[in-house]
């Protein structure tokens, strides 16, 4: 059974270029999670699926550390775009504030 140990919620507004991060972890852990995720996806082929066009995109990444498992949920519809948003987050992480998860 999946048990969420680390939860990361990224909201990206494409018009304003605003990034909001909510997580139950600090910046060091968030950076490691995103780097590991992107490295694990490096061998995958580019996703050519048409993305869902919206002003704001939200991606939720959950990790179950005991079972070495993860779940990702988004409304984007294109994994390559999800990865690009995560790269943007990594580039801006130093300046971003991590907010607590809202229940």
Describe this structure in words.
The chain has helices spanning 27-41, 79-92; strands spanning 6-13, 18-23, 56-64, 69-74, 98-99. The longest helix is centred in the N-terminal third of the chain and has 15 residues, at 27-41. The chain has 2 helices and 5 strands. The protein has one domain. The protein has a 5-stranded mixed sheet with strand order 4-3-1-2-5, with helices on one face. The chain is α+β, with helices and mostly antiparallel strands and 103 residues long. Helices cover 28% and strands 30% of the residues. The mean pLDDT is 93. The relative contact order is 0.29.
What is the number of strand segments?
Answer: 5
Order of adjacent strands in the largest pleated sheet: 4-3-1-2-5
Radius of gyration: 13 Å
Largest sheet properties: 5 strands, mixed
Number of domains: 1
Number of helices: 2
Q: Give the overall shape, derived from the CA principal axes.
A: globular
**Uncertain regions spanning at least 5 consecutive residues:** none
Please report which band the strand proportion falls in: under 5%, 5-15%, 15-25%, 25-35%, 35-45% or over 45%. Answer: 25-35%
- N-to-C SSE string, H for helix and E for strand: EEHEEHE
The helix-and-strand class reads: alpha+beta
Ends apart, CA distance between termini: 21 Å
Helix content: 25-40%
Mean pLDDT rating:
93
């Amino acid at each position: 059974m999946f048990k969420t140990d680390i939860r990361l919620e990224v909201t990206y507004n494409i018009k304003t270029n605003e990034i909001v991060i909510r997580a139950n972890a600090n910046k060091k852990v968030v950076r490691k999670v995103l780097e590991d995720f992107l490295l694990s996806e490096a061998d995958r082929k580019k996703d050519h699926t048409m993305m869902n066009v919206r002003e704001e995109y939200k991606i939720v990444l959950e990790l179950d550390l005991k079972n070495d498992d993860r779940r990702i949920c988004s409304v984007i519809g294109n994994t390559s775009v999800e990865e690009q948003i995560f790269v943007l987050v990594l580039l801006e992480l130093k300046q971003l504030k991590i907010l607590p998860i809202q229940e």
